[in-house]
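yo, HNH endonuclease is done. seq:
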Amino acid sequence: MILDYSFVLFSSLLVACLIPLYIYRQKVFPFVYKTGPLEFFIQDLKAHMQKYPKMIFDYSIIEKTKDEKDIRIRQTLIAEDIVSQFYYYAYEKNTQKGIPREKLWTTYEERSFSNPKTPIDWQERRELAWRRDKNKCNRCGTEIKLEDVYTTFAKDIAKGGGYNFENIIILCADCNKVLNAKNPKNTIASLHLNDELMKYVTS
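structure:
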């Protein structure tokens, strides 16, 4: 049977209209996807948390919220629990490994301990400490770009600590917020991790 041009044209137009509906079906028909599968959310969340290898997270919140019927509320409760665990994760600032002696410079010792002010070669020290730790946050283990590095000290400068490499600790932005937090609730809400996990919550 030979199809006429009008049938072919109509069919092509119909397919062209249906393709965008299929691609954007979740936005066009949100009521259908309101109770989307929890499994995908949990899978995405756990995959994301692998970025923090120095931390072990407890996912028992998934079972504890099983009676919650609204999928969005349940996902939010799970995400909030994980972010809270990140905030309250036990961490002790310890003396770090140093830098090989051959990489140090002549004024290194003098500028490490003799002056309470930040040494003029601080940026160089900061970068070498970042390289020493393989570009990773000392608290959570996530990778950090040099321009995003924060620092603290195993022993505070005000308490007699120095600017030597063994005393320099490298942190990501979130861990820096946690260690300097005054208000837990506000700090938890401001964490980059909180924003990232909330993106996985069904909209």
